[in-house]
Amino acid sequence: MNNPLIDAGELPRFADIAPEHVVPAIRELIAANRQKLESLLEGDAEPTFDSLVAPLEIMDQALSKAWSPVSHLQGVLGSEDWREAYNDALPLLTEYGTELAQDARLQRAFAAVGDSLGSEADAARRSLVRQALRDFHLAGVDLPDADKARFKDIMQELATTQAAFEHNVQDASDAWSLHLEDEDALAGLAAHTIERAAVEAEERGLEGYVLTLDFPTYHDVMMHAEDRGLRETLYRAWLTRASDQGENPDWDNSANIAKILALRYEAARLVGFDNYAEYSLATKMAGSPAEVLDFLNELADRSRPAGAREVAALEELAGMRLEAWDVSFWLEKFKQARYSISNEELRQYFPAERVVAGLFGLAERLYDIRLTAEEGKPVWHPDVRYYRVDDADGGEIGGFYTDLHARSGKRTAPGSPTTRAACAWKTRLRSPSATSSATSRRRATVGRRF
C-alpha cells in the first residue's frame, strides 16, 4: 500500500493522509529503524560521531517526519478517527523511544564516541554526546532488568494518561456553549465576535447568539463585555474545563492528574531522584527545587508592591472590589481613561494580514531572509497558508505554515491567542544540525516531557 506518511516528499501530503495510514507507517518505520540500529551496533570497529550519531539522526528524522503531521492533525481537526489513530500509535512510539534510551549497547557506543572527541572537536558535537549520556541515565539504562521493565510500563501509562488529559480539555472546551437571545448581553464585544456568535447560533438552529470557549471569544469577553455576569460565566467555564467543577464528569481530569503525579514520582525515584522536581531540573539551568523556589519567592516579593498599586488603581476606577473576571475588563478601561489607548480601537488598524506582513517584514530585516506566500501547497484547512523561506541570495532554506483562526476541534491556547492559533511547520532544512539530534527527540518521546 502506498502510504503517504512514508512517501511524503518535501511536505506532508495532507490531502492524501488518512487515519488508517498511521499505525502501518509507524510500525514500518520503527521496524526499519530497529534493523538499521542493529547494523550500526554490530562489528568491532570503534564508533565515531559520523558512523553512529549522524545515521541515528537520519533514522529519527524519518520517524519524526511521519509522526509530526499525525500529532498535528489530531490536534487541529477535531476528528475522532484521527484521535483514535494517534492513541493507537502513541504506545508504539513510546515503547520504541524507551527501548532506545535503555539500550546499554547504544550507551556504550555513545560513550566511545565521547572518548574519541578531543577538546578540539566541535563544541556542539561534544555537548550532544554529553547530553545523550545523561539522558540514557535519566531513562533508566543503569537499572536492573525488573526496574527497567517497570520504567517502560510507566512511560506507556504516562503517554496514555497525558493524551487522555489533553483530549478531555479539548472535549470539554468544544462541548461548552452559552446561548443568548438578547444582543444587549453582548454589549462591548467586538463586531466580529458578535458575528461569529450569530453564525454559531444559526448553525445550531437557534435564535440569537451562541458563545463558545474558543480563545478569541473568551479573550474578547474578558476584556470588553460590559455584562459582569457574562464575564464571570465564561471565566468559570474556562477555569473549570475538564475538572471536578466542570459540567461533565466524563471529562474530569482529577484522576488523570493524580495518576500523572504518581507515575512521575515513581519514575523519578527509580532513576535515583528524591522527587520529580529534581528529575525535571536535571536538564535545566536551575540546580535544585530550592533554587527555583527562591527565585520565584524573590520575584513575588519584588513584584507584589507594584501589583498591589495597580490593583488599587483599578479598584479606584471601578469603585468596587475586583474579582478575577473583572481585572482584564477594568484594565482596558484604565488604559482608555489614563492613556487614551483602546485595544479594540487599535484592532481596526491591525487586521491579521497587516500584522503578518509587518511581522514578516521585521523578520526579513533582522535575519536577512525573504518570506514568500506560496499557493498550491498541501494544507489541512482552507485557512492555512504556506510560506517559503529564502536566504539573502534567493536560496530556499525552509518553509512554514500559518493557521491563524480559531475553530471547533482545534486546540485552544490556555494563555496566549497565538500559542495554538499560529502553527509553524519546519521543513526542508538543508542538513541535520548536531544540536538538534535524534537524541533530544528520543528524550521527548521517552519522558523528558512526562
Summarize the structure.
This protein is mainly alpha-helical.
List keywords for this structure.
two-stranded antiparallel sheet; mainly alpha; three-stranded antiparallel beta sheet; globular; 59% helix; 450 residues
Account of the protein in words:
The protein has 450 residues and is mainly alpha-helical. It is 59% helix and 6% strand. Strand 4 (385-390) and strand 5 form a beta hairpin. 26% of the residues are buried.
Give helix and strand order, one letter per element, not per position: HHHHHHEHEHHHHHHHHEEEH
- By helix and strand content, what is the structural category? mainly alpha
The side-by-side strand order for the widest beta sheet comes to 3-4-5
Instruction: Tell the overall outline.
Output: globular
Give the tally of β-strands.
5
Separation of the first and last Cα atoms: 35 Å
| Radius of gyration of CA atoms, rounded to a whole number | 25 Å
Query: How much strand?
Result: 5-15%
| Biggest sheet descriptor | 3 strands, antiparallel
Share of helical residues? 55-70%
What's the pLDDT, averaged over the residues?
A: 88
Tally of separate helices? 16
State the low-pLDDT regions, or none.
414-449
Chain-wise SSE layout:
Layout lengths: L21 H20 L7 H28 L3 H22 L2 H13 L6 H16 L6 H31 L1 E4 L10 H13 L5 E4 L2 H10 L3 H12 L14 H17 L5 H6 L7 H30 L5 H16 L3 H5 L4 H16 L2 E5 L10 E6 L5 E7 L35 H11 L2
Antiparallel strand pairs: 1-2, 3-4, 4-5
